Structures are given as structure tokens and as C-alpha cells.
Amino acid sequence: MQEFSVKTKLSHEELLRAKQEAENYAENTVPDNSYEKLLGDTEWKKLKPEIQKRFSVKPAVGKKIIYVGNMQVKYSFFGWLFAKFCRLIGRPLATHAGEEVPVVVSLTQNQQHQGTEWRRDYSFAGYEETIVSVKALDEKGQLEEHTGFGFSMSLDVRVVNGNLEFHSRKYNFRLGKICMTLPMLITPGNIIVKHEQVENEFFRFTLEVNHPLLGRTFYQTGIFS
């Protein structure tokens, strides 16, 4: 991997400056009511206004939505093994750990799945790592996250205390028109992703992965803007 010098922590002022250096947010986005439809009108209205704003748009064609922040990145031994193995099917999980790891999240349109590509660039001490997945609706209008080579994860979207959460329902493998559900025991585990409003444009992103036999395999959390 490419080596470079990196700060282990970015101040809020630096985060804001990095955010402001991106193109104008309004020019980078177009309206999107996908999450409002997934939740339904009653649940959508329970979301905090700042979260509604973030999830009522998507990247315009050829544009990016950029979030920057610092994360704590942890995994168990079995989590590390899962992350390494998953390199065979894409780059869905970080294979390194650290405290106050600078992360840049870039959202772009993905034409293959007609969804949004989430690219996460982690700047670990001495090396960098990129994780890529695509969130899109399946043929039934349900949310999926694609990692590559036919593998995906079905997600439920929930509102908890005014914040947005994504809960994995099952893991899938598609080969042409054939779709198979993978046994949970051979996956990293049940995933919960939390998007919690902090203050103004700041929000907390948290990823938890819990295996039915091996316990917690991954944990990541950090503040973004």
C-alpha cells in the first residue's frame, strides 16, 4: 500500500475547511425520496430535520457528496479474518484498526445498480485503505448494499430516537437470475449502522457487526460533517 505522512486527528476547524473546499453542496445534489418511501410518511417525520435533509438528496450525475471526519476502527481476530477473506469479493470491510483515523466519505451515482456508491477512504498511520459499496433498491423496492461479484446485503431502515439506523436482514449471492441467501454463520454477522445527529452539520456514524457465535467482530464510530 502507498505510504504517506498523515495526522492522527483533524480538528473541527480543519473538518469544516475540508468540507468547504468541496463544490457547493446544492450544486452537487438532486432530490431523492427513496428513504422517505422506504420508511413511510409517519416514520420519516420522526427523523430529526438535519437527517431528513441529508437523506432527501443524492449525488447529481458526475458530482460528489463529501463527508469528512475521524473514526475509531476496531475488530476482533475473527473480524480481521472475515475482512481479509472478503477481499476476494470486493472491499466491504477495513482490514486495519486505529484511533482517531481520518476518513473521507464520497458519494457518487452508480449506474450499474442504479444506486449510490459509498467510497470510504481511511488514512491509517502510514497507509491508506479504500472501502467501496453501493446502496440501491432491489426489484421489490427494498434496500440492498452491494459489495461486488454478485454479493449483497438486504437492509431494513429504522428510525430510533429521531436518528436513522440500517439493520442487515440477510446476505445474498446472485448469479444471473438465481439469488441465494447465505447462511449467517459464514458471514461477518448481523450489521447495525447508525446515523445519529450531533449538532448542526455534525453527525455520528457507527458500525457494529455481531456474529451469532463469535460475538462482536467489527466496531467503528466517529464524528463527520
Q: Could you explain how this protein is built, in words?
A:
The chain has 225 residues and is an alpha+beta fold. It has one domain (12-224): Beta Barrel (Lipocalin), CATH 2.40.128. It has six helices and 13 strands. The protein has a ten-stranded antiparallel barrel.
Q: Secondary-structure blueprint of this entry?
A:
Elements: H1 12-21, H2 25-28, E1 29-31, H3 34-39, H4 41-44, H5 49-54, E2 57-59, E3 65-75, H6 77-85, E4 98-110, E5 115-124, E6 127-137, E7 143-148, E8 151-160, E9 163-175, E10 178-181, E11 190-199, E12 202-211, E13 215-224
Antiparallel strand pairs: 1-2, 3-4, 3-13, 4-5, 5-6, 6-7, 7-8, 8-9, 9-10, 9-11, 11-12, 12-13
Kindly, what is the distance between the CA atoms of the first and last residues, rounded to a whole number of angstroms?
27 Å
Number of domains: 1
What is the mean predicted local confidence, pLDDT? 89
Uncertain residue segments: 1-8
CATH level-3 fold name = Lipocalin
Chain oligomer state: single chain
CA radius of gyration: 17 Å
Order of strands across the widest beta sheet? 3-4-5-6-7-8-9-11-12-13
**Helix-residue proportion:** 10-25%
Name the structural class: alpha+beta
CATH architecture verdict: Beta Barrel
Number of strands: 13
Sheet with the most strands?
10 strands, antiparallel, barrel
Question: What gross morphology would you assign?
Answer: globular
**What's the CATH class, please?**
Mainly Beta
In short:
About 15% of the residues lie in helices and about 50% in strands.
